[in-house]
């Protein structure tokens, strides 16, 4: 799949682009099954909701689940990312944000690139996020809200709070915008929450301001976010490097999967 010129311009203007129903129902079912399998696998890749047992996020599933390893190389996902960046891209980060029914918590207003600049000394904000809806996304189950065009303002917030919400990853609460910053941006850019059926995909800039409210509905809202980065824009991890489960250390361009790699992954998940 290739984006049209109109779609490319829409992405560059707004900082995001919604592709409706890109994956079919059977494909989404397999991705959901793989996600649940990963949630049931103990390890530091799982981030748990505060004061509970529900999974808040899971990192690097593409390194453990064959379905996600394939998805990262699927032309419907990879080619649009290459169009927006360059042919030589790799998976910089992979995570699935899980908002269970009746209580999946909010994600504070933030810009992704600031987190990566702080954690990894990432040189430039040339990443593209590919968000895959693993559930139908409605106005009721905590959709991601974007401030369209805010990516053109550059970083609007600096630094990280002294008190850290999580020791496992850099949570958006640590780099959240102030109420005054958000009010000014919303006044200038407005707010939009892309919605659609499971299998839809939203492409969005690493600089666009976004956040989400808690899920107060009886319907889950699981969102896969794969971040592609240019191979020419590698991070340099300061001090103690980030854990392997948070960031993918293979900076080589994505190559087709061979059978051996898939067999190994599938054996490990039986």
What does this protein structure show overall?
By secondary structure, the chain is of the alpha+beta class. Helix content is 26%, strand content 20%. It has helices at residues 5-14, 25-39, 66-71, 75-84, 112-120, 179-189, 259-268, and strands at 16-19, 46-48, 55-59, 89-99, 107-110, 128-133, 144-146, 201-205, 210-212, 221-230. Strands 1-8-6-10-4-3-2 form a 7-stranded antiparallel beta sheet, covered by helices on one side. A hairpin with a 6-residue loop joins strand 2 and strand 3. The radius of gyration is 17 Å and the shape is globular. The relative contact order is 0.24.
What brief labels describe this structure?
20% strand, alpha+beta, 7 helices, 270 residues, globular, 3-stranded antiparallel sheet
- Cα separation of the termini: 32 Å
Number of extended strands: 10
Broad structural category: alpha+beta
Largest sheet: 7 strands, antiparallel
Number of helices: 7
**Shape annotation:** globular
Query: Oligomeric status of the shown chains?
Result: single chain
The average pLDDT score comes to 88
Rg (CA only)? 17 Å
Question: What percent of the residues sit in helical stretches (DSSP H or I)?
Answer: 25-40%
Low-pLDDT runs of 5+ residues are none
């Amino acid at each position: 799949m290739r984006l049209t010129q109109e779609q490319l311009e829409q992405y560059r203007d707004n900082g995001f682009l919604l592709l409706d129903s890109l994956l079919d129902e059977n494909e989404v079912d397999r991705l959901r099954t793989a996600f649940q399998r990963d949630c049931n696998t103990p390890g530091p890749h799982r981030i748990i909701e505060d004061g509970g047992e529900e999974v808040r996020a899971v990192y690097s599933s593409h390194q453990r689940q064959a379905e996600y390893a394939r998805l990262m190389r699927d032309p419907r996902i990879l080619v649009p990312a290459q169009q927006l960046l360059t042919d030589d891209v790799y998976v910089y980060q992979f995570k699935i944000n899980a908002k269970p029914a009746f209580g999946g918590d909010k994600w504070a207003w933030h810009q992704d690139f600031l987190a990566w600049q702080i954690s990894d000394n990432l040189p430039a904000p040339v990443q593209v996020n590919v968000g895959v809806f693993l559930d139908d996304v409605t106005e009721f189950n905590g959709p991601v809200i974007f401030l369209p065009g805010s990516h053109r303002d550059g970083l609007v917030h600096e630094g990280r709070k002294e008190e850290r919400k999580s020791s496992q990853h850099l949570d958006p609460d640590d780099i959240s915008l102030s109420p005054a910053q958000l009010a000014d941006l919303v006044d200038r850019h407005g707010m939009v929450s892309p919605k659609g059926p499971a299998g839809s995909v939203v492409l969005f800039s690493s600089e666009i301001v976004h956040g989400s409210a808690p899920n107060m509905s009886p319907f889950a809202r699981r969102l896969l976010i794969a971040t592609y980065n240019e191979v020419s824009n590698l991070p340099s991890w300061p001090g103690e490097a980030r854990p392997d489960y948070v960031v993918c250390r293979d900076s080589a361009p994505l190559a087709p999967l061979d059978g051996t790699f898939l067999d190994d992954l599938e054996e490990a998940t039986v």
